Amino acid sequence: MTDYVLIHGAFHGSWCWTRVRRLLASKGHRVFTPTLTGLGERSHLLSREVSLGTHIADVTNLMTWEELRDIVLVGHSYGGFVVRHVADQMSDRIRSLIYLDAFVPDNGKALFDYVPDKGNKFRALAATNGDGWKLPPPPASFLAVNAADADWVDRQCTMQPLSTFEVPAQISGACDEVPDIGYIRARGYDSPYFDGFYALARERRWWREEFACGHDVMLDMPNELTTLLLQRG
């Protein structure tokens, strides 16, 4: 039996992992899919005080209080920022670290440092539609979500604190000592910066995989993703 900890990306919640969670659980594994503070069913906790640090603590506290060790830790999209910090603080508890079409931040770099306009469009959107401190979710079509799930994803996604994209990463490098690290690229989602992280994974000699689907791999190809996760467990 393996313990899996699956971290969603921005605007999402535990709900996006439902299919993969059920598939892994059906094989006898324990699966934890925490919703980060202020998102999904925890959107009632959204406030200016919610930060990247809050989301990192959501996961490290889960691992501490559930006494999780030898886990497979997966971070999707923005969740790459979260799991990289978690692995940096708790590398001894992680068997496999997987970036799923995710950001892989260097020390001192914020998420906005990786997007083309350094986040100016996001800040403008927050100013006009989020009281200056929160971001409305992009449409599912922007994420290239499959047509059958698009309306559902649009209903499920919630606001994201702008500050989570602005805080620089604080990485010591211990995260790269995890024995098994991989990067999965969703080829149906056009993103130069995720292409860059995929290339970085090769430079660092991490294993790599590609899926022919949109950004939300866990929704578009849950069976194939589960098969890969089982191989790392």
Automatic annotation (TrEMBL):
Key words of the record: Hydrolase
Annotated coiled-coil segments of the chain: none
GO MF, one example: hydrolase activity
The organism's place on the tree of life at top rank: Bacteria
Pfam families (UniProt xref): Abhydrolase_6 (PF12697)
Domain AB hydrolase-1, chain residue ranges per copy: 5-224
The keyword Hydrolase is assigned to this record: yes
InterPro entries reported for this sequence: AB_hydrolase_1, AB_hydrolase_fold, MES/HNL
The protein's name in its UniProt record: Alpha/beta fold hydrolase
Organism: Bradyrhizobium brasilense
